[in-house]
């Protein structure tokens, strides 16, 4: 049995790099988890600005989304990471260099800004899909605007937005592999390291399996979230 | 059976003939794309440290020398196919290559160095000197492997970059304290982009870490040509002794290359 396993999985390699792969999974999870949540919080005001009647916030939000959706994430990461490096003096003058010196912070910042742009668009679509009658009914009941948004519009918008948001999270998990290019040892970073030492292509297979497991986790989490958000639609 | 003996006898005759061969003409290949070691000059001729050394060696042996250019990947295959007799292309003597070809004694070393900002507080390049510091290097290189094996366990943080340019960019911006790479390449960078910011912090003895960096640079010959290998090795010792080597080396490098 162990012979068959040994031919499929290089056990020596597994023993040497296994712990580092687990560290890599943690780094990927932290980076994507935190940036997705922060991005989600940022997406709400951006989506509202996109839907605003005032043309100034509308134009600002439009440009923001236009830029972050229209350029590759890799370019954005390099722009923030190496761009900040070029402007070190300026960042030191305002006391931000300690943050921008850190590759992890640069990656987190870029990912947050990037995913916020996508999530804002998803949210905007969700908000617009809520029938106007809902808002009118809340108005007729005398609910204040913020309460109407928080209790009536947003929960219904999230039902529509939930699946696309899940997609966005899955795309983020896979896109996060590019942080290995700015010296962060996420799953991909560890994989590249292990490969450059062992020249065994098998490590890429391990990486693929780890990403699959992460995505499967998201899928299950999302199924639970959907059941909870749509519990009022279920037949009694 | 009779056939086997015949073949064996023929082989014996052939190798006997080969070993008795007088080396009146030696064809030497180089890459021609790795200045200042070997490159095509403005007059279209092959030049550089490797080429000059090769010609000096031929002079010592008293043989006529032809130097030809050959792409890096094809250097060893074409040598084995007898397109030429030796390779002088800054080829590091490594175990992997020794499976295929034989090497003369080294005629140069492949020095490895650390660079750091000019105002660095670092004074040395031993693992103890760099404890708690961040070293940058290019991933998938022998430098990266050596750092991770030797410096990593001593408390040095190793940051790996896809290319050396990116490591150098982070050296300039202060994200890494020092960068480790081939000295020749670093010197080239210090002459251009890194002229204002940085300097050589110190060299690492590549012979001490021969396991990672090979045993220096030698000429490669076919495994059958033991006599040529010995002739060339002896010629290297001769030009080292009579000063020809130093004259050539001074033309290209302002530091000890042997």
Automatic annotation (TrEMBL), chain A:
Membrane-spanning intervals of the chain: 24-49, 61-84, 96-118, 169-191, 203-222
Family matches, as PROSITE patterns: ABC_TM1 (PS50928)
Main location: membrane
Gene Ontology CC: one annotated term: ATP-binding cassette (ABC) transporter complex
Pfam entry (one): BPD_transp_1
The keyword Cell inner membrane appears for this protein: yes
UniProt GO BP: amino acid transport
Location within or outside the cell: Cell inner membrane; Cell membrane
InterPro entries: AA_ABC_transptr_permease_3TM, ArtM/GltK/GlnP/TcyL/YhdX-like, MetI-like, MetI-like_sf
Keywords: Cell inner membrane, Cell membrane, Membrane, Transmembrane, Transmembrane helix, Transport
Domain ABC transmembrane type-1: 25-222
Family assignment from sequence similarity: Belongs to the binding-protein-dependent transport system permease family. HisMQ subfamily.
NCBIfam families: HEQRo_perm_3TM
The protein, known as: ABC transporter permease
Protein source organism: Chelatococcus daeguensis
TrEMBL record, chain B:
Signal peptide: 1-20
Assigned keywords, A-Z: Periplasm, Signal, Transport
Record localization: Periplasm
SMART domains: PBPb (SM00062), PBPe (SM00079)
Domain Ionotropic glutamate receptor C-terminal span(s) in chain numbering: 25-255
Main location: periplasm
InterPro entries documented for this protein: Iontro_rcpt_C (IPR001320), Lys_Arg_Orn-bd (IPR005768), SBP_3_CS (IPR018313), Solute-binding_3/MltF_N (IPR001638)
UniProt key word Signal: yes
Segments forming domain Solute-binding protein family 3/N-terminal: 25-256
Keyword Signal: yes
Classification via Pfam families: SBP_bac_3
Protein family (similarity comment): Belongs to the bacterial solute-binding protein 3 family.
Protein name: Amino acid ABC transporter substrate-binding protein, PAAT family (TC 3.A.1.3.-)
